Predict the 3D structure of the following.
Amino acid sequence: MLRDSSYNLTEDENGIGDEEFSIERIHRITEAIQSGSTYVLQRQSNPDPDELLEFDFSDIEPTAENTVLGLIAIEKVLRMYTDPMAGADDKVVVDRVVDDFLKQVFHQYSTYFGNPVESSMELDYRQYAFVKEDDQYDDLTLLAIKRKK
């Protein structure tokens, strides 16, 4: 979703209020993971214009699994935002594997995931408070194929 500087929903000049993950982003993220470089996520409309969302893949193996995890993790962060009005009741749920991956590569991890919530949820998921997340309208389906050498 697109948000203005007051964190209200907004639309672009064409009347569209959603931000796509996009094929271009998928290619750039995949290239960063495979080359062990850094990817900077730039939102189309960010309420905090100075925010830097940086993912460093230099310490992970360029495997198919890590590529898929990287895409899922960055798509999750794309939908999240740190609204100053967010309170203890504003929570996000993150898959444990994705959360562990983000801890390794996401430089702003403590900003987005700095308020863990004790939960009775399954061990496969973790909750964090004081952060908001836009709904996920489409599933992200990924297929990784490994070539034989």
Summary: The chain has one domain: 2-133. The CA atoms of residues 103 and 109 lie 6 Å apart. The beta strands are 2-3, 9-10, 38-41, 53-56, 80-81, 91-95, 116-117, 125-129, 132-133.
